[in-house]
Amino acid sequence: MTVRRGALIGCGFFARNHMHGWAEVEGAEIVAVCDRDTAKAERMRADFGVPHAYGDAEEMLRTEKLDFVDVVTTSPFHKQLVELAARHGVAAICQKPFADTYADAEAMVRACEAAGVPLAVHENFRWQRPFVELGERIAAGRIGKPVYARISFRHAFDYYANQPYLTEVERLSLMDIGLHLYDLARYLVGEVETLACRTQRINPIVRGEDSFTSLLGHVGGATSVVECSAFAKYDPDPFPETTAVVEGTEGTLELLRGYRLIEHHAGSSFETNVDVEVPAWGAKPWQVVQRSVAAFNRHFVDVLNGKAEAQPSGAHNLGTMALALASYDSAASGSVIRMSEWR
Ligand code: NAD
Predict the structure, then answer these.
(1) Is the interface score ipTM higher than 0.90?
(2) Cα(12) to centroid(ligand 1), Å
(3) CATH superfamily to which 4-117 belongs
(4) Is the CB of 276 under 6 A from ligand 1?
(5) pLDDT in tens, 294-328
(6) pTM reported for the whole predicted model
(7) Distance between CA atoms of 317 and 122, rounded to whole angstroms?
(8) Helix (H, G, I), strand (E, B), or coil: what is residue 296?
(9) Is 36 in the pocket of ligand 1 (CB under 6 A)?
(10) Which is nearest to 333 in space by CA: 195, 163, 175, 168?
(11) Fewer C-beta neighbours within 10 Å, C or N terminus of the chain?
């Protein structure tokens, strides 16, 4: 089997999940890691037995013979790093938010297309087991044609402890979790025609919005509600679970807290536990997220080997970026945005 040679760029908080995920995947190997903070790069190299650590991505791409890079920095660095990979003819995975602006995201897609290399956005929510299961059941026609969905991520977990930069950003909830939830809405229900969004800043320690509620009108007539709050008090706190309901013409799929998936039909229902085993390297409550990272990585090896289109690709993620960015316009103006007219 060909083993694809990869390098990870950005050795911070979330990158450890990527590294553990790569260690589980056959057909790819991380041969180098890079961080501007060389102490972080060296620690990652030592912890995961990686041959080389770099402080400069350009030097790494000049030196190493790579098939792909896995970019796990925060968004301000994504464009320069993805374009660097494209210049070297190397495929790229880019963490979300793909970019801070639509123009930057378009430029990244163009650069990779021109170089003829795959570009995937590390959109792991759709790779979480509950959503893989929902997607498969919808695709199999078990609930008929989806007509209504609600996708919800509400908690008060202090996720700023691991990601302190989030308290400083002007665009918080939509560009952090909103992108994941909009990707799910497109994946489960289809493309979006109209969008109306309200945002709220509730927690005084953050600069941006930490809550939003959106109403989406989908092509073909379905409606969905996408909602998120990082200051919603529940006991026990449900972080990092996303709950969802998708109603179709023939039945309903209801994903409840505790990873309980209930499929309803007229006069009957059955329940499936869609939780996953905690990986040996992982810990609760992160298990579903951690397994989704490994699943995404496994999928990307198929992309590199020409067996699959990236789910999602950079080009597909432009539509998700558009929804998140249009949501700010809707929230500011109080208007409904027709996506074909946005920008
Ligand atoms: P972090 O700040 O902990 O780590 C980012 C690292 O990138 C830092 O160590 C920084 O020094 C390094 N870096 C920045 N620019 C660089 C450059 N040009 N070259 C080399 N290294 C560079 O951030 P994090 O919390 O790990 O988040 C990283 C990304 O992952 C963010 O975009 C975040 O939104 C995303 N994230 C995704 C999920 C998910 O579930 N998909 C969860 C958490 C974070």
Answers:
(1) yes
(2) 5
(3) NAD(P)-binding Rossmann-like Domain (3.40.50.720)
(4) no
(5) 999 999 999 999 999 999 999 999 999 999 999 99
(6) 0.98
(7) 10
(8) helix
(9) yes
(10) 195
(11) N
